[in-house]
Amino acid sequence: MKTEKYPLTPPPLSAIAAALPPHLAANYASSSVTVTPCPDLRNEPFNLTTRGLGGSPRVAEVGGQSNLFPQPQLQQIWSLPDLAREMEMSPHRGNLIGAGAGPWKDVGQNSELAADYSWSDGGEGGGDDHDDQEQQKQGTTNDKNGSRCVLVNKSSGEVEVHKAPAPNCALMCNLFGSHGEAGDVLKITARGRTGERGSFTECIQAALHEAFGGDTTVSLGGVVLIKKGKAKYHVMPDFPADKDLPFKNLDRLMQWLTWHEYEGPIIGLSVLHSADPGGKIGLRLEHTHTFSPTGKGAGGHYHFDLKETNGEDVEYEAYFNAAEVIYRIDRVAQRNKA
C-alpha cells in the first residue's frame, strides 16, 4: 500500500458546534448542535461494535471512485486490519467505521459496504468493561466484524442486507478510526426540512466549508440515525458482464445503479470533510452508507431525504467526532473517460 499522511489541527468541538447552526436553521424547521458524551453505540438502535468515537480519532480515504469508473478495477481489495495498521492505529484496541464498496470476492458479488470493525486485547486503551478485564486476564484478542453489505439479489432483484463475511473492502472506502472510547462528541439533530439541500450530511459539510474553508480542514466521522421520514438511496448491483469498458459515460453508470426509497429508522456511517486540503489529496468530501437496524432489506448509499412523507417530517440524530489526521491510501489517478 502507498500511504500519505496529513496531520490536522481541528478546532475544539465547541467551535465546530458554533459553526453549524446557521446552515441547519436555514434548511430545517428545528435543529440543534451540542457537545455531549457519546451514547454507547453498542446499544440500540445503532448496535455497532464500538462503544464510542473517542481516542486518537483519524480518517482515511482508500482507493477512489476511479477504481469503479470507467472500468472496475477488481484487483483493488483491502483488509480492514491492514488498513488500521496503515492508519497507525493501536494494535491493542480500536474501531473503524465508514462507507465503501463491499468485498465482492467474499460476498460473491458487488455490494455497498457499511464498515464496522473493532478489535481489543485488553491492553493499551482498554476500558473498564467486564469483557475487557476478562480479555486482559486471558491474553486474548476480541475482533468483531459488524460490517454490513447491502446488495441486489441477482435472482430476485430485491435489496438485501447481510453481515459481511470478512473484514474486507474493495474499490474505495472512507473510514473513521478511533480507540472506540466514550467521550465528548458533536450531537446534531434536525427535523422538518424547509430548505433545498436534501442531504443532511452534505448540509453539515457545507456548513463546515463556509466556516473553515480550506485553510483549516475539519474532518468528521460518525453515525447518523434517520429516525423518521423517507430518503433516497442507491445500491450497486453486481458488476456488468462486459468487463472491457462497461461504463462508457457517466449516464451509463447512473443507469446501472439501482435506486430506492426507504422509511426510517435507518443507520448511517459517515465521513465528511470541510475541504480537500489545498486541493491536493483528492478527498471525497462526503460519503454515507446505511443499513436498517431492524434487519430488513433496506440501506445503501444515502443521497437525500424526501421532505415530508405521509404527513411525517424527516428527522435526524447524529454523533460525530473530529479527526486529528488524514491518511490517503492507494490514491488512484483519474482515469480517462471514453
Automatic annotation (TrEMBL):
Residues 116-149 are annotated as: Disordered. The keyword Nucleus applies. The keyword Ion transport does not apply. InterPro entries: C11orf54_DUF1907 (IPR015021). GO terms for molecular function: hydrolase activity, acting on ester bonds; zinc ion binding. Monomer. Coiled coil: none annotated. Keywords: Hydrolase, Metal-binding, Nucleus, Zinc. It is found in: Nucleus. Residues 19-329 form the DUF1907 domain. This is DUF1907 domain-containing protein. SUPFAM superfamilies: AF0104/ALDC/Ptd012-like. One of its GO terms (cellular component) is nucleus. Pfam families: DUF1907.
